[in-house]
Amino acid sequence: MLFKQQALLRQKLFVLGSLAIGSVLYLVARVGTLDRLQPICPIESRLPPAEPEQIPIRTLQYKRGLLHELRKGNATKEQIRLHNLVQQLPRAIIIGVRKGGTRALLEMLNLHPAVVKASQEIHFFDNDQNYARGIDWYRGKMPFSFPHQITIEKSPAYFITEVVPERIFKMNSSIKLLIIVREPTTRAVSDYTQVLEGKERKNKTYHKFEKLAIDTNTCEVNTKYKAVRTSIYTKHLERWLKYFPVEQFHIVDGDRLITDPLTELQLVERFLNLPSRISQYNLYFNATRGFYCLRFNIVFNKCLAGSKGRIHPEVDPSVVTKLQRFFHPFNQKFYQIIGRTFNWP
Ligand code: A3P
């Protein structure tokens, strides 16, 4: 009986002992695994070292937060002072070309944390009445920004208005100038489509594009038609070059901004001496719109207004060819000046 009890006790001790050894072995193994998964160093030291020129991430948040409130006029003077916010004159201007994709370019550049856009077209330099109001009026139209950010405005009329280059030069002779261009005939048709839509909205009739673009007496291209004249890019650029060296301009390919915006935006980032911050994450193709749209962050994204990306009316192919032939020599000169070639006919 006693022998039987001792054997039972030995058995229990053996089981308990095995369990204890098993647990110890498990813990050793587990701690080892955890050790491997979690580095011992404190959390902070595992963060990548901050690049000195890096724009604080807060800036981007403010763009959707405080700066947005400021734009709506909801922020207090105290907040402006506290955050060291200022209204700065633009350090870069999108001067044109109308219907080249100026709005898309501005909105896309605004994805960059170091860029702040003036939402409205200010028309300071091309409108005599506005210009007479003075530079402080112009500055007052600019959005609030942090001192390290750059403000950009766009007024496409600047490109074709004679007095503008001299006026901008007087404000800042080292300003950076952005011009976005599209294939000239397409741009002219886009220009026509916008005007046509305006007329239709007012229940007004309007000529067909062919009638405006071709002089019925000579059967030649009508160079008096504004949509044609605006597309002679070299003529306008030459006026600008009387004031600014060609290095101060960057020409954006508006056709490529539609199909491959990131590549064009990265070229602009480089021109503006900005660190590359706009990424593929910020741009997504919206099949319904047929265009790229903008993603600022996980909650905020937007496409351009419906007035951008209109359906163009069909144009007589012989008129298209005539226009393309007309623009060809001007395009060649344009390429020569800017040192960049486009796939235009
Ligand atoms: P269309 O309406 O002829 O298609 P702007 O802003 O200078 O007026 O230019 C308008 C043009 O921007 C549009 O011309 C459109 O093709 C072009 N565009 C470029 N990227 C765009 C985008 N992501 N969304 C909408 N339109 C865009």
TrEMBL record:
Organism in which the protein naturally occurs: Scophthalmus maximus (Turbot)
Q: Would I find Chloroplast among this entry's keywords?
A: no
EC number(s) in its UniProt entry? 2.8.2.-
Q: Which domain of life is it from?
A: Eukaryota
Q: Tell me where the transmembrane regions lie.
A: 12-29
Reactions catalysed, as given in the entry: alpha-D-glucosaminyl-[heparan sulfate](n) + 3'-phosphoadenylyl sulfate = 3-sulfo-alpha-D-glucosaminyl-[heparan sulfate](n) + adenosine 3',5'-bisphosphate + H(+)
User: Which InterPro entries does the record associate with it?
Assistant: NST/OST, P-loop_NTPase, Sulfotransferase_dom
**What is the predominant subcellular site recorded for this chain?**
Golgi
In this protein, the active site sits at K99 (for sulfotransferase activity)
Q: What name is this protein filed under?
A: Sulfotransferase
Q: Does the keyword Phosphoprotein apply?
A: no
